[in-house]
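Here is the promised in-class demo. Please do not try to memorize the tokens; focus on the logic of going from shape to residues.
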């Protein structure tokens, strides 16, 4: 119920709950460093230099503050107008839930010039005889003891929590994901400017890894980090505050929970930035906790945004030549990068994992703030604001017109069959089959390779489309430049599913798209340019695993046989594989014909060789192109293929020492 699952996702959720408690202290202005250590024995430790958990006796329970926090639900400072005006924990139950799900949990607190300590076994306080979770445990019987284990320097406060997850509850393969932890730490450092978060992974004693995150630019810097495209506008900050009232249960001195009406304050802070692309990147947060499935704050943002943009388009309808067409939400959201944060005490979530904000009043507050601040930007007299808002309206209207045109085109276009192939590019050599799942489109490099491929293919299900040399680098080019490029337009037309936002994979004409280029540097460059086109404008094909790279051989070795026995032909795909084969043949006393043929291109193969090695399903090798992490892939594509030269130059200089001279194909 509280953590969502008992696999790695639930394990990470427990860790985030402990981290969030330290972040709450930083948000309240106490402490600016958090350290997270992953140990080889499966435990994890979180350290901070905040105020430290209270060690005094809590009068209503007679227990120390440490024991109350780790054993009592809804007893933390974040409940009932306590210590935090805004927090991200599990409604005050996070620490106690993590404790209950831990085979062992040790907590140390620096406070009042002393270091206090307490241990728990599956949520029960007591003492362990040794340092490991399987050490003998003695629970406290009559009363608990908060031990003093040392002295703390004057003015030094903080908390250290180390726990071992209970393997009777979590699945055997549940592990802490360093990548997820780093992503969450980076995100939190963006959301809390000035907070330093350090992650140390000691699970591999021979190669410990330490990473530190600290960003002073806040969510504006976060939006710039997330943005996948070139900017149309600067990053705008929309900020404001609203109040509302709600009835919540408050713990009374008698121990009873009494419904009480409280006035709440909600702080709204949004960073927005429009770019030249069509993808939307929206990250929403409540008290620095991500809400990936949105909620009332996201609904309010979209409502305020739609209200202002639609009003501005109507006011400028004559200049923009809008006519009677109506803006859609997707038109406005295209190319938009948003970091939306709200801070309020005791937010209501739909489900304990906090993926959807449910507090109703937040919707109107966010909508009002966004509409007011965005309208002020459009009415600004500053030259930059006027220029950027004008460009934004032009982009939004262009997206609307593109959507309407694509819909009209989609309604009239049907999948081409063999009888309709005349409307397709003349250079396409189509297949006879109408079975999409079984058909294959080979994009081949050059007319010479096309001639051989025609003879090598199976015309029943294999189609061929030749391209001339290196196509346009679409990472640098605009959409209009891409569509006006003959090679790019031909590829999009032949596949038949559109491009960009209008791409519909269900109308694709082929089940597989196979990139067949030469096995040299130029071939690799052409393949990279083609993959850039698919990644930016036909990404669903890659995501569904329908894009492949053919693997043609680099060498042809004819092994001699004595007597009348026919010679044997072997193919190798790299220099290392060739040397390994020749050494193997030499040891076996075999000989081969000299010189060994090295293919400089697909056109040097005859039809039988090309079919056997590259096109025939029985003997070919294909590399499936996958995008496991779209954001990482996008950043690599931008680095290697984008407009900004300086980062690419730095990357080449820094990576030059890792390049072996013998790998240069010259």
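The designed amino acids, position by position:
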């Amino acid at each position: 119920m509280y953590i969502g699952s008992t696999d790695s996702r639930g394990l990470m959720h427990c860790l985030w709950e402990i981290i969030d408690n330290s972040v709450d202290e930083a948000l309240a202005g106490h402490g600016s460093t958090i350290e997270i250590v992953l140990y080889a024995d499966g435990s994890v430790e979180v350290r901070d230099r905040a105020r430290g958990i209270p060690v005094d006796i809590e009068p209503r329970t007679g227990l120390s503050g440490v024991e109350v926090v780790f054993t009592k639900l809804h007893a933390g400072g974040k409940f009932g107008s306590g210590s935090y005006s805004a927090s991200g924990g599990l409604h005050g139950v996070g620490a106690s839930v993590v404790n209950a799900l831990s085979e062992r949990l040790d907590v140390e607190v620096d406070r009042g010039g002393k270091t206090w300590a307490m241990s728990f076994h599956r949520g029960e306080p007591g003492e362990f005889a040794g340092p490991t979770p399987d050490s003998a445990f003695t629970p406290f019987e009559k009363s608990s003891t908060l031990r003093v284990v040392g002295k703390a320097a004057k003015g030094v406060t903080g908390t250290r929590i180390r726990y071992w997850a209970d393997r009777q509850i979590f699945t055997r393969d549940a592990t802490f994901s360093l990548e997820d932890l780093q992503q969450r730490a980076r995100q939190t450092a963006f959301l809390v400017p000035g907070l330093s978060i350090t992650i140390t992974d000691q699970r591999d004693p021979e190669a410990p890894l330490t990473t530190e995150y600290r960003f002073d630019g806040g969510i504006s810097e976060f939006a710039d980090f997330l943005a996948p495209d070139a900017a149309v506008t600067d990053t705008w900050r929309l900020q404001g505050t609203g109040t509302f009232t709600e009835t919540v249960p408050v713990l009374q001195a008698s121990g009873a929970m009494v419904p009480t009406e409280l006035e709440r304050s909600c702080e709204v802070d949004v960073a927005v930035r429009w770019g030249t692309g069509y993808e939307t990147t929206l990250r929403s947060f409540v008290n620095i906790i991500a809400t990936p499935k949105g909620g009332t704050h996201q609904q309010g943002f979209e409502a305020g945004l739609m209200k202002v943009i639609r009003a501005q388009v109507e006011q400028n309808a004559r200049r923009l030549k809008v006519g009677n067409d109506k803006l859609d939400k997707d038109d406005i959201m295209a190319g938009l990068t948003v970091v939306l944060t709200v801070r309020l005490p005791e937010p209501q979530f739909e489900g304990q994992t906090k993926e959807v904000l449910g507090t109703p009043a937040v919707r109107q507050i966010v909508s009002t703030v966004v509409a007011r601040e965005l309208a002020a930007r459009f009415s600004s007299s500053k030259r930059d604001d006027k220029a950027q808002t004008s460009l934004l309206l032009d982009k939004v209207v262009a997206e609307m017109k593109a959507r309407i045109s694509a819909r009209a085109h989609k309604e009239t276009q049907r999948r081409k069959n063999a009888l309709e192939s005349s409307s397709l590019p003349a250079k396409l050599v189509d297949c006879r089959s109408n079975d999409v799942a079984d058909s294959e489109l080979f994009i081949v490099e050059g007319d010479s390779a096309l001639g051989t491929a025609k003879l090598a293919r199976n015309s029943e299900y294999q189609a061929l489309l030749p391209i001339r040399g290196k196509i346009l680098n679409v990472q640098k080019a605009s959409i209009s430049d891409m569509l006006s490029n003959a090679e790019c337009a031909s590829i999009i037309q032949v596949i038949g599913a559109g491009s960009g936002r209008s791409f519909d994979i269900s109308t694709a004409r082929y089940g597989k798209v196979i990139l067949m280029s030469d096995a040299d540097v130029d071939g690799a460059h052409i393949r990279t340019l083609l993959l850039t086109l698919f990644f930016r404008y036909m990404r669903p094909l890659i995501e569904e695993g329908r894009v492949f790279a053919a693997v043609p051989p680099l060498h042809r070795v004819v092994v001699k046989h004595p007597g009348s026995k026919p010679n044997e032909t072997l193919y190798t795909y790299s220099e290392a594989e060739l040397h390994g084969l020749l050494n193997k043949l030499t040891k076996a006393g075999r000989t081969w014909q000299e010189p060994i043929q090295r293919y400089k291109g697909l056109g040097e193969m005859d039809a039988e060789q090309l079919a056997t090695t590259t096109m025939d399903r029985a003997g070919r090798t294909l590399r499936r192109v996958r995008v496991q992490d779209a954001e990482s892939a996008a950043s690599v594509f931008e680095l290697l293929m984008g407009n900004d030269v300086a980062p690419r130059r730095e990357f080449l200089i820094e990576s030059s020492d890792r390049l072996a001279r013998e790998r240069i194909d010259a």
